[in-house]
Amino acid sequence: MTMTAEAAAARIAVRVELGTRSYDILIGRGLLDVAGSEIAARLPGARAAVVTDRNVAAAQLPRLAASLAAAGIEVVPVIIAPGEASKSFGMLEHVVRQVLAARLERRDVVIALGGGVIGDLTGFASAIVRRGMRFVQIPTSLLAQVDSSVGGKTGINTPEGKNLVGAFHQPELVLADTGALDTLSPREFRAGYAEVAKYGLINDAPFFAWLEANWRGIFAGGPEREHAVATSCRSKAKVVAADEHETGERALLNLGHTFGHALEAATHYSDRLVHGEGVSIGMVLAHRFSARMNLCSPDDGRRVARHLAEVGLPTEMRQIPGELPDADGLMALIAQDKKVSRGTLTFILTHGIGESFIARDVPPAEVRAFLRETLEA
Amino acid sequence: MTMTAEAAAARIAVRVELGTRSYDILIGRGLLDVAGSEIAARLPGARAAVVTDRNVAAAQLPRLAASLAAAGIEVVPVIIAPGEASKSFGMLEHVVRQVLAARLERRDVVIALGGGVIGDLTGFASAIVRRGMRFVQIPTSLLAQVDSSVGGKTGINTPEGKNLVGAFHQPELVLADTGALDTLSPREFRAGYAEVAKYGLINDAPFFAWLEANWRGIFAGGPEREHAVATSCRSKAKVVAADEHETGERALLNLGHTFGHALEAATHYSDRLVHGEGVSIGMVLAHRFSARMNLCSPDDGRRVARHLAEVGLPTEMRQIPGELPDADGLMALIAQDKKVSRGTLTFILTHGIGESFIARDVPPAEVRAFLRETLEA
C-alpha cells in the first residue's frame, strides 16, 4: 500500500487529445501495482487478455496480474516468444485466436505488457478482433514508453518490409511504469534514449540542452527519468493530435529514421544494430547532411554527435560491426523505405537543434554523394 | 461507345454520407466498361491492384482491365480461389503480400471485383496494407451489390466464427454493374434477393409491397433491378451514415441474421444452406417469434413467408436438407453469435412489416421454447 501511495504521489499525466478517442498516459514508478484500479475506473466490468512475452512475463506479469485481480478484473494471459520475429502474420493470427478463444467481447480490453514488439503486435490484434477491441498499453522499455506506445500506430513486418501492415488504433490508456526500466540492459536503455533525444532535436532546443546536463539522472533512475519520459510523451502527443494518420507534420517524428532504417535493413535487423542505435547514427547523419546542404551549421552535427556518444550510443556508420553496403546499396534501401512518395525523396532535415522540418523532393544525387563521402572518410 | 453512353444514361447514384469519407455508389448496366474513367476521375494518377477469384476473372476481368487500361490505369491482377474458404488468415496474408509486391503506395488503389467473399477479404487487406490503402468495390453478385459492398465492414473468418476478425474501412467508390448479375445462378440470385426484401421488412413497407408486385422484373433484368438495388443501397447507406461502427441502430440490418447465422453454423456453412437462404428462413422466424411475443400479427409472418416462397427461397427450417440440431443445440449456436452482449440476447424483432426494432434482453427461455415448438411442428 505504501507503493500505491508513492505511485499516486509521483505520477505525471499526459493527455493525448483526439476528440472522442482522447486518452491519458500515466507516468511514474510503481504504476504496475495500480494498473488494476486505473483500468477498472476507466473500463468498468471489462475482462482482460494480457499479451506479453516470456521475458517480460517472468519479470512483470505477476505484479500486473495481482493488481488486476485485486480490482476484480478477470485475466487471460497470452504469452509469446520475445523478439522482432514475433511481429509476423503467424503470431498475429495466434494472438487474435487466443483473444477470441477467451471469448472477450468488444467492451472488454486487450492489454499489451512489454516493449515495442508486444505493443505493435497486440495493438494490431486488438484493432482487428471484432473490428476493434479496447486496448491498454503498458510499455516496459524506454523506447516503448516514449515512442511506440503513444500515437496508435500498430503493425507487423512482412518479407517486403517492416511495419508495412497494420492499423491506426488508439489505446484507452497508457501506463508507463518507469520503475520497470530498472531491469533493462544498458544497451536497450541507451537505444530508447536516442528517441528521447530526438524530441529535443525536432523542436525543443531547451529540452536537448536539459538532456545534455541531466542525462545521468535519467539513466540512474532519478526523478529526471519521469520528466524525460513525460516531456517526450507530451511532445509526441502534440504531433499525433495534430496529424493522427501521418498525412503531414507527423513525419517529423521520423527524424533520423530514413538513414536509420536503411542501416537497420543493411544489417538485416540483427543484433549488429538495434533500432535506437540506427536512429542515433541517422540523426547525426541528418544534421551533417543538412549542414552540407547549407541548412544549418556543422557545429550542430558535432554537438549532437558529442551528446549521443557521451551516453554511449553509436554515432558513426563505421561503428557498426561487419560490412556495410556502399552508397548505391544504401540508396537502394532508402528508396525501398515507405517514406518514399511517388519516386521523390522525403527527408527530415534541420535548420539547427530543435528546428527540424520536412524536406520533400530532396535530390537523390545529393544524398548519394553525401553517403559516398561519409563512407569513404 | 454505345454501351458507355447507355450506361451513363441508365446510371443511378447513391451517396453514402460519412463526412470526409463520403462516397458514391453507382448502379447501372455496363458500368464495368466505364470503371476506368470513373476511378481515374476520382483518384488521378493512381495505380491499381485488382483482386478477384478465378470464376469472376474469367467472366469479368477482361472488360474491367480494358476499361482501366483505356483510362491509363496500370493494373496488377491478384487472382485467388473462389469460395468462402478464401476468407482466411492465410489468404489475407497472400493478398496483402501481393499488393506490397506490386509496390502500391498509399495513394494507389485496391479494387475488389467479385462477390461478398472477395469484397470482405480485399477490403480488409486494403485496410491494413500501409495502415490503409484506398479501395474500390465492384460487386458482381446481388448480395454484394445490395449488402456487403456498402458500409465498410470488411473481414475474414477463423475457426472461432465468421467475420470475427476485420476492420471498418470505407471504399472510395462502389460500382454496381447490374448487367454482371445476368450470369449468376438462380439460387445465388435468389439468395441475394433475401437481403433486398430485408430492407422492405426493416423500415419500408411500401418497398416490400412494391417487391411483391415487381419481383419478376428484378429477376428478369428489367429496370426494376436497378430500382431495387438503388433502394436497397439507399436504405443501407442511411443506416450506415447514422451508425458507422454499429454501436446502435445499424444492428437493424441483422434482421433475420441471428436465426440465420445459427442455421448456417448448424449446416457447417455448407451448400446445404447459403447465407441468403438462412436470412430468408431467419426473417420468417423473426416475424413468427415477434407474433408469439404479441408484438405483431401472425398475418405478417404469413405474408413474408408467402412472398419469399414465391421467389423460390426456403422459408421453413424443415426445407434444409439433412439433420438439424434440436432447440438446445440451436440456442448454443445463437449464444456463440457475436451479437450476444454480456450474456443477454439481442434480437431484431418487429411490430409488423417495415417496423423492425432492436430488442435487447430477449428472454433465452422464450426463444428456446419457440424453436422447440417450430422444430416439432
Quote the beta fraction of chain A. 15-25%
| Range of helix content of chain A | 40-55%
Total count of strands of chain A: 11
Say what the CATH topology of the largest domain in chain A is. Answer: Dehydroquinate synthase-like, alpha domain
Cα(first) to Cα(last) distance of chain A is: 58 Å
Query: What topology, given as strand order, has the largest sheet of chain A?
Result: 1-2-9-6-5-3-4
Radius of gyration of chain A, CA atoms, in whole angstroms: 20 Å
Mean pLDDT of chain A: 93
Name of the CATH class of the largest domain in chain A: Mainly Alpha
Q: What CATH architecture of the largest domain in chain A would you give?
A: Up-down Bundle
Oligomer state equals: homodimer
Structural class of chain A: alpha/beta
Order of helices and strands of chain A: HEEHEHEHEHEHEEEHHHHHHHEEH
What are the segments of chain A in which pLDDT stays under 50 over at least 5 consecutive residues? 1-9
Largest sheet of chain A: 7 strands, mixed
CATH homology group of the largest domain in chain A: Dehydroquinate synthase-like - alpha domain
Largest interface: A-B, 32 and 31 residues
Overall tally of domains of chain A: 2
Q: How many H/I helices of chain A?
A: 14
Shape of chain A: globular
